Amino acid sequence: MQPLQAGDKVPAFTATDDRGQQHSLSDYQGQKLVVFFYPKANTPGCTAEACDLRDHYQELKQAGYALLGVSADSEKKQRNFSAKFEFPFPLLADEDKAVIDAFGVWGPKKFMGREYDGIHRMTFIIDENGIVERVIDKVKTKAHAAQILTP
Predict the structure, then answer these.
(1) Which structural domain range is residue 26 located in?
(2) Best CA proximity match to 142, nearest among 77, 75, 48, 73
(3) Is 1 inside a domain boundary?
(4) CATH code for the domain in which residue 42 is found
């Protein structure tokens, strides 16, 4: 696993969100973007993280950030997750892992002594020119907005 690092240019990507709309990196040219990767919709940690971002969405917007959540879940699962918790930001359904691979967040994980491949919970803060400004690799699911807003 080789995730993007601060200073890296983000590769162009396009993916469909929970509402069936396409999102590309170029759509966010000229504004700051937060791309947060989470392992699986509707699981406790992912729900806590996304709900924290939802609860602080206005602060994030006032700081100039657009938000995109990404997991390998289907469009339907993302739609159900978003509707259940009323997320004001798009959730990309990256079933083919194109965005996940572009950011380098797929790799070996361990849970309860079992090793498997999966999505690493990471957040990338991208500047107006598509360059990674900062990477948060130790995400605090219940205080993630504060991590983003505090450099």
Answers:
(1) 14-149
(2) 48
(3) no
(4) 3.40.30.10
CA distances (Å), origin 18, targets 47, 64, 76, 132: 15, 23, 7, 25
Residues taking part in catalysis: 46
Establish if 6 belongs to a structural domain: no
Question: What b/e sequence results for 11-37 when a residue is b if at least 16 CB atoms lie within 10 Å of its CB, and e otherwise?
Answer: eebebbbbeeeebebeebeeeebbbbb
Counting the structural domains of the chain, the total is: 1
Q: In Å, how far are 45, 86, 93, 95 from 40, measured between CA atoms?
A: 9, 17, 11, 11
Task: List the structure tokens of 10.
Answer: 């983000």
Tell me, yes or no, whether 33 lies in a domain. Answer: yes
Report yes or no on 8 lying in a domain.
no
Q: Which residues pair with 109 in a beta bridge?
A: 116
CA dihedral sign of residues 49, 53, 55, 59: positive
pTM of the predicted protein model? 0.95
pLDDT digits (tens, 9 = 90+) for 65-94: 999 999 999 999 999 999 999 999 999 999
